[in-house]
Write a structure and sequence with these properties.
7 helices, globular, Nucleotidyltransferase, domain 5, 7-stranded mixed β-sheet
Length: 183
Amino acid sequence: MTKIYFDTEFTGLHQNTTLISIGLISECGKTFYAEFNDYDFNQVDDWLRENVISHLQYNGTFQILEGSKTDISYKSTTENIKDKLTIWINQFDEVEIWSDCLSYDWVLFNQIFGHAFNIPKNIYYIPFDICTLFKIKGIDPDISREEFAKDLLVKVAFQQGKKHNAMWDALVIRECYNKLMTI
């Protein structure tokens, strides 16, 4: 089973939140990053502008950059992102999803596909949370993820990112998981 680590950025911690971006990285380094151009712009406040929107790869311009099935970077509507994400996920036989504080992330991930029954069949229906893994390993789940994984993050060949960019956060989640599994 392939582990995929993911993160999302969205318009707020409330019931009607909408996706701004999603980043996924497999345990073998294949990536998917997408920014949504159909999120609810009316829900964007100053904090989101400063801490999330400013870290978007496309920064408000419409571009489509497609790579191979290995690495996809894309900005479009939810429907088009769903199609590309499905293709990307289907390159793996079986998928186990890991995230961090995944309450909103998992609901929004399922929403991309309409609801949980429509997610690609190769995805295991139970997601896993590194917050719980931190707790099980006896580490405060409120620890700085970047600080915890800094020794591993230095070793990866990945452009230095910033917190609240979905792709960077997915990479941090993967490196936290890798370190936690050695403890």
